[in-house]
Amino acid sequence: MALMHLIKNYARKKRLPAPVVLTVDHGLRDASAGEARQVVRWAKKAGLKAHMLTRRGPVPRSDIEAWARDTRYRLLGDWLLKHQVATLLVGHSLDDQAETFLLRLARGSGLDGLSAMRSFAPWPVLGFARLRLGRPLLSISRETLRDYLKGIGQEWLDDPMNEDSDFDRVRIRKMAPALASAGLSSERIASAAAHLARARETLEIVTQAVLARAVRTSPEGTFLDAAALVGAPRELGLRALASVLMAVSGQPYRPRFGSLERLFDALAEGKLGSGATLHGCHIRPSGKDFASFSLLVRPESPRKTGGSINKRA
């Protein structure tokens, strides 16, 4: 709601087209359809066009968070492509940024994960390469946004699933008061993520030099010079390897850091064997005399795509 009003006012001030409001009914609760319709009514009252996108079909029994996120972005992405809109703005706040940092820290993420969410990012699910995600509120706290809504007399809805401790993010959120009392406020955590984001940007530039030495592409696939890759500083080598896997598989996000390290170490120790799979890619010896580019990376068969390294002895 806060994002809706802020972007509406910004567009009016800059004489830009008014934003269109999209809301998704995941169908996970009996009240969800009525709540989505309420969002549409509020948007129309604010003078904006609004559309309710509805998910249909069965619901999985596990990993509801990831499933709901993917489902939401697929519905939104389909609408944007159909209506030739390139960017979706979402209301992630400073508190969401801090929670994301802590979630990724708990999962053992590397630098990219700990630099948390970008203000402008690729679409988070496959199949929507032309779309982008914007997060203009990452520096604003949830409390400040709620105060803004109170000041303009705009109601909002709180999702009761945000109180369900079965979800990792909710457990992290409920820890926030104790963390703040220990000096780890959302502002401090988000600031740390911002510092890491600047470091990531610098490393991305240097990683391009490693890729220029270690990668060659041809109609047969992407060839890797393992010696050039593992001879670089470890962080740069890992980042270069992740970039290759993302480019070959078409996936917008990096593989899990632990799996990436295991593959990198297999390359460094000459223990790849006949090949390995990771992040939708098959990495194997090229079997050809192609200078020092002795490894070949190709997309993996869809039915075998996974998120962990599977070594073929």
Secondary structure topology:
Elements: H1 2-14, E1 21-25, H2 32-45, E2 50-54, H3 64-82, E3 87-89, H4 94-106, H5 111-114, E4 120-122, E5 132-134, H6 142-152, H7 168-174, H8 176-181, H9 186-214, E6 215-218, E7 221-224, H10 226-231, H11 234-249, H12 257-268, E8 275-278, E9 281-285, E10 295-299, E11 310-312
Parallel strand pairs: 1-2, 3-5
Antiparallel strand pairs: 4-5, 6-7, 7-10, 8-9, 8-11, 9-10
What does this structure look like?
- This protein has a 6-stranded antiparallel β-sheet with strand order 6-7-10-9-8-11. The protein has a 3-stranded mixed β-sheet with strand order 3-5-4, with no helix packed on it.
- It is an alpha+beta fold and 313 residues long.
- It has 2 domains: 2-189, Rossmann fold, CATH 3.40.50; 219-312, no CATH class.
- Helices cover 48% and strands 14% of the residues.
- The chain is globular, with a radius of gyration of 22 Å.
- Residues 304-308 have low confidence and may be disordered.
- β1 (21-25), α2 and β2 (50-54) form a beta-alpha-beta unit.
- It is built from 12 helices and 11 strands.
